[in-house]
Amino acid sequence: MATLAELATLRTDLSDATVDHLLRLTASWSLLADLSFSDLLLMARVDEPTNRGAMNFVVLGQMRPNNRSTLLNDDLVGTTQTSDAWPLVRLVFDSGTRVVGEVTVEKVGESVPVWCVPVRFDSKVVAVMVRLQGPLRGPASLYEQAYLSIFERLCSMVGDATFPFREDDVAGPGMPRVGDGIILLDGLGEVEFATPNATNALHRLGIYASAEGRTLRAMGLRVRVVERSLEFGIPAMEEVDRGQDVAILFHCVPLFDHGVVTGVVVLVRDVSDLRQLNRVVLNREAAVREVHHRVKNNLQTISSLLRLQARRSDEIETRTALQEAERRVRSIAVVHEVLSREPGEEVVFDEIVRSLVLLVEDTVLALHPVEIVVNGELGVLSTDLATPLAVALAELLTNAVEHAFVGFGGALNEHVGVVTLNLVQEEGYAIAEIRDNGRGLRPDFSLEVPTSLGLSIVRDLVRTQLNGTITMKSMSYAEGGGTLVRVVVPTSVRD
């Protein structure tokens, strides 16, 4: 289905600024649908040739009420309506005033009471908002009468181009709706009426006195957004807390009459349960973050112990083995360090890669200059994938820096080694390629019979724990020489 902007561009001659105004209206008009207990349609004139005297309209938007069954089961957005079927809509375009009457709607099959409200922008009627009124359940109650009165005042604002507001939407997902509770204030901020749900919300805040005829401040409740809406005439939202157990959301919608603020509609929602849930989630995240932080600290302690033990050893082989073990522990700690900042089931692996490169550069003692270059990125990976992959990449980078250039070309001091790490994620796989410009592999090299513990660890991690593949090969002179290691692992669980 085409969007309002697309329909307006294809079917009408409305300017971009006008379309933006209509988009703001449709972003906020769920409030109007609920206040009027009615379906709403937004129609604009079609910019295309018609028979002489005829006029066609395109339906740019449709809104159903949240508190009453809809009259229109079908979606009319994008359909063309004729002036013969909607004579009152044409009358609004011709007269520029609100028209009230009845229209026989094809999809309903009977006459329906309608309001046709001019939508004015830049002193011109650019569209018509049609209210299709459903049958009321008996005589209108006092609250229904109040709702309809507010709706009529907002319709006047639509006709004066003072609604919708430029500052913000006043309705939509996540915002209070009419059924949550309404407090109507006059131009002095005094309460004209409050619905039962709104009264209950005030009770939750400790306000038990009768609200009618008094300001919220006089009742001991300071809501800054009410004062802001009355003084400046702009919509605003504020959450008022009472201790840690009660949170009430106030959303103020100012009412205008010829440019003067004559009142404020305050939509009220009790969000106490939601805030408590948020606190539970935040506490859980804090606990998970603390766990990762402690794991990181424990791993760093183990790393320090291994490093101290390596310094005390007189055997070169023992010292080397302890240093390698210490580096592997630190590479695992890197992952937990990132998770301690942003806990969750996924992690931005590129942050881990940067830390791994620094780790290799700090811990590897090469006898010749070596530069590590990283190209591309793997983006977000699951934590189950990130930890073993980080260990494998740290091992492969270390192996390339330490061994790829030993005895290369007989000119160790003049040869600058380059180790390139290429990363890419495509079609559900994370691909890492480690390329060096060193001496290459021995002719009898086989990954199935690795000559070092590090390669054995990498092979087993990739094939067993990551369910991936790893290949190593020497590159020809024409290809630039050196060694290419390619690791491919699935980013999700596969059968």
Structure, explained:
The protein is α+β, with helices and mostly antiparallel strands and 495 residues long. The model has no long low-confidence stretch (mean pLDDT 83). A six-stranded antiparallel beta sheet has the order 3-2-1-6-5-4, sandwiched between helices. It has a five-stranded antiparallel beta sheet with strand order 8-7-11-10-9, with helices on both faces. It has helices spanning 4-11, 16-28, 30-36, 87-95, 142-160, 196-204, 224-232, 272-312, 316-341, 349-363, 383-403, 453-465, and strands at residues 38-45, 56-63, 80-82, 99-105, 110-121, 124-133, 182-186, 191-194, 236-242, 246-257, 260-270, 346-348, 370-376, 380-382, 417-426, 429-436, 469-474, 483-490. It has twelve helices and 18 strands. It has four domains: 4-160, GAF domain (Beta-Lactamase, 2-Layer Sandwich), CATH 3.30.450.280; 178-270, PAS domain (Beta-Lactamase); 272-344; 345-495, Histidine kinase-like ATPase, C-terminal domain (Heat Shock Protein 90), CATH 3.30.565.10. Helices cover 38% and strands 27% of the residues.
Question: What's the pLDDT, averaged over the residues?
Answer: 83
Helix-strand sequence: HHHEEEHEEEHEEHHEEEHHEHEEHEEHEE
Give the strand order, joined by hyphens, for the main sheet. 3-2-1-6-5-4
The first-to-last residue Cα distance is 37 Å
CATH fold-type name of the largest domain: Beta-Lactamase
Query: What is the top-level CATH class of the largest domain?
Result: Alpha Beta
> For the CA atoms, what is the radius of gyration?
35 Å
Number of strands: 18
Oligomer state of the chains in this structure: single chain
Which CATH-level-2 architecture of the largest domain?
Answer: 2-Layer Sandwich
Estimated helix fraction: 25-40%
CATH superfamily assignment of the largest domain?
GAF domain
Structural class estimated from helices and strands: alpha+beta
Supply the number of helical segments.
12
